[in-house]
Specification:
Elements (H helix, E strand, L loop, with lengths): L24 E8 H10 L1 H6 L2 E8 L4 H7 L5 E6 H11 L3 E9 L3 E4 L13 E5 L2 H13 L4 E2 L15 E3 L5 E5 L13 E4 L1 H6 L9 E2 L5 H5 L2 E6 L6 H10 L2 H10 L5 E2 L2
Length: 268
């Protein structure tokens, strides 16, 4: 019996062992507040049934949850896509891997001071994220909507792309690069903006508000699926497998589909 077990006045032999509540093992997962932490909270019951008590630690940036995982402060994290993870490993010497792809957040175009893409005019300002993979996705979405043409060879697997990779811009659109999380606040100042799913949700935007989105069967959906990340070598651990089971359960699928109105899409 562990020395830190609560003391009890009753002799241990009074109750059959089967009636004693099984001690749940603690499972600590780092996550972004929306939608990742909400999705994890929705599968707490699934994890309890598998013998784990889930503790969600919320991070508001994309660096600390990977460092905390690498330092064994977390059992896993859930906030990023694999291209970001691989790039992070390369830059920081960490050895983190994907255990499973859980969901996909379509990157979407939202109206700023214009309500419809039909209103697009010469010289309009469009805000896009300024970080590598997300800017590439944003530009590919603008290309898919026929607003610009990118240079040959830019596709969903492209790690980085910037406005310098635009080959044709017939309407001389002014595409401004901004920190992704600041774009929703800038909507009144731009004609349109391309916003990441999580930041759109945090700003109260829904899938119905989007004027155009990456399609769920696109290369981007597969490439940029949000993953459950763990330390290399722990992909098959009991804790990891319990998390994968819970996050790919029917409970999880229903929660995502009923909660996010297409701004978050299950990919399992």
């Amino acid at each position: 019996e562990p020395s830190d077990a609560p003391a009890s006045d009753a002799p241990a032999s009074d109750a059959p062992a089967s009636e004693a509540p099984a001690e749940l093992e603690k499972l600590v997962v780092g996550a972004s507040s929306t939608p990742h932490a909400e999705i994890l909270e929705a599968v707490k019951g699934e994890l309890e049934a598998l013998g784990y008590e889930l503790e969600v630690k919320i991070f508001d940036d994309y660096i600390m949850p990977n460092l905390a995982l690498a330092d064994s402060e977390l059992d896993a994290n859930y906030f990023q896509h694999e291209p970001y993870l691989l790039n992070f490993n390369a830059e920081n010497g960490t050895e983190l891997v994907s255990a499973a792809a859980i969901h996909y957040e379509p990157m979407s175009i939202y109206g700023g001071n214009k309500a419809s893409l039909d209103e697009l005019a010469e010289g309009d300002i469009i805000a896009v994220p300024n970080d590598g993979t997300n800017e590439a996705r944003a530009l590919l979405l603008l290309e898919a909507e026929g607003l610009i043409t990118l240079k040959e060879g830019i596709d969903a697997s492209t790690e980085t792309a910037t406005v310098l990779d635009i080959a044709e811009n017939p309407q001389n659109l002014e595409i401004i690069e901004m920190e992704a999380k600041n774009i929703p606040h800038s909507l009144p100042d731009v004609a349109f903006a391309v916003i990441n799913g999580n930041y759109a949700l945090q700003a109260g935007l829904t899938g119905e508000d989007a004027l155009a989105s990456e399609s769920a069967d696109s290369d981007a959906a597969q490439t940029y699926a949000n993953i459950l990340a763990v330390r290399a070598g722990e992909e098959d651990s009991a804790k990891t497998q319990a998390l994968v089971t819970a996050l790919t359960s029917e409970t999880c699928r229903q929660f995502i589909e009923e909660t996010y109105d297409g701004a978050v899409v299950p990919i399992f």
